[in-house]
Design brief:
By secondary structure, this protein is mostly helical. It has one domain. It is built from 3 helices and no strands. The chain is elongated, with a radius of gyration of 12 Å. The N and C termini lie far apart (about 50 Å).
Length: about 55
């Protein structure tokens, strides 16, 4: 069951790799703790956005 969710998470990461477990949980209609556990298990991590420097 985790593998199926991991494949779905990977598919969404192809589109936008900055999404974390909260946004992915909403998009996949599942719990955020489950998504967080699967991401940690399969080594999927959100890319951090660089902060914009305002001058």
């Amino acid at each position: 069951m985790d593998k199926v969710l991991a494949v779905r998470i990977e598919a969404l990461h192809e589109v936008d790799d900055t999404m974390g477990h909260r946004k992915l949980a909403v998009m996949l209609a599942t719990g955020k703790n489950r998504v967080k556990r699967v991401m940690r298990k399969y080594g999927i991590a959100a890319r951090r956005q660089r902060p914009r420097i305002l001058w």
